[in-house]
Design goal:
Layout (H helix, E strand, L loop, with lengths): L2 E5 L3 E6 L5 E6 L1 H12 L5 E9 L2 H12 L3 E7 L6 E7 L2 E7 L23 E5 H6 L2 H16 L3 E5 L10 H12 L4 E2 L3 H8 L4 H10 L4 E4 L6 E5 L2 E5 L13 H14 L4 H15 L10
Parallel strand pairs: 1-4, 1-8, 2-6, 4-5, 8-9, 9-10, 10-11
Antiparallel strand pairs: 2-3, 6-7, 11-12, 12-13
Length: 295
């Protein structure tokens, strides 16, 4: 059975309720993608999540949440550790976030990593710029080497740069590490607004060019509500956007797009049809509140 292995940090989410209290959930960019992928995947595709957790009750609840969602938990347990947490605040309808992740066990996911769990030739391993950002420098190098070895063995490596400068010591370090990650990836899924802001790309073609030059064979440049640029080898295709009927919460727009695209590719859709599936899913997700929306 083909496997999609999503890699990164899942966190406790505290979100405000109408009663003025906070509800507890679990979310995180690569986990959100796994969660949506599992909703789309048929019985012939296995979705798994690789990270590190602690041995406390919140970590146990996170594991059970993954299992209940049908996601296979590939979780390294760190004795005495725990998981990261973030809180959503609302002011005049605008969301802001506060994070507590310095003691997150996910920072250690690559400390003793020798091979990606449970993936073989034909499977997909997916990670993001946030996966890279939470790892210490030495662990990043080990992680990238493991990805490169998996790629050499026929695993398709997929990377969403998901640029978050607050997680990095400086912009130069972030940009350098992002390009190192892209260099071990087959497919890169950037968002143009971020790329333009931090890499200075003039247009979506410039973004695709930069990732193609470091070895990505497929680049899918998302551009908010605009058309998606699909680069396959030397061929560019502009995929028209799906029109959103309502925009309530864009939190997981990119994460859900990634899920729709990846499952489409695994199910044998053409790349442009997979992009269209990703756009349709993202439009459904942003029409409801929260990172994880039943579809």
């Amino acid at each position: 059975m083909p496997r999609l292995l999503s890699i990164g940090e899942c966190m406790i989410e505290l979100a405000p309720t109408e009663a003025g209290t906070f509800g507890m959930g679990f979310a995180g960019d690569t986990f959100n993608t796994a969660w949506y992928a599992q909703q789309l995947a048929g019985s012939g595709i296995e979705v798994a999540y690789f990270s590190a957790i602690g041995d406390d009750e919140p970590s146990g609840r996170m594991r059970r949440f993954m299992e209940d969602a049908g996601i296979v938990p590939e979780l390294v347990v760190r004795k005495g550790g725990s998981v990261g947490l973030y809180m959503i605040s609302l002011k005049n309808g605008e969301r802001s976030f506060s994070y507590w992740r310095s003691a997150s066990a996910a920072r250690t996911l690559a400390d003793d990593l020798d091979a990606l769990p449970g993936v073989t030739k034909g499977d997909i391993a997916f990670f993001s710029g946030i996966t890279m950002a939470v790892l210490p420098e030495a662990s990043r190098a080990r992680f990238l080497q493991t990805l490169a070895e998996a790629r050499a063995n026929g695993v398709t490596i997929v990377f969403d740069p998901n640029l978050r400068p607050r997680l990095w010591p400086d912009t130069a370090t972030m940009c350098d590490c992002i390009m190192q990650a892209a260099a071990v990836s087959d497919i890169v899924l950037p968002s143009f607004e971020d790329e333009q802001g931090y890499f200075g790309d003039a247009d979506t073609t410039a973004t695709a060019d930069r990732y193609s030059k470091v070895g990505a064979t497929t680049v899918v440049v998302k551009d908010g509500p605009g058309p998606v640029l699909l680069r396959q080898g030397t061929t560019d295709t502009v995929v028209p956007p799906e029109t959103a009927t309502a925009v309530v919460d864009t939190t997981a727009a990119g994460d859900s797009f990634n899920a729709g695209f990846l499952i489409g590719m695994m199910e044998g859709l053409s790349a442009d049809a997979a992009v269209t599936q990703g756009c349709k899913l993202a439009c459904k997700v942003i029409a409801a509140r929260g990172a994880l929306v039943e579809i």
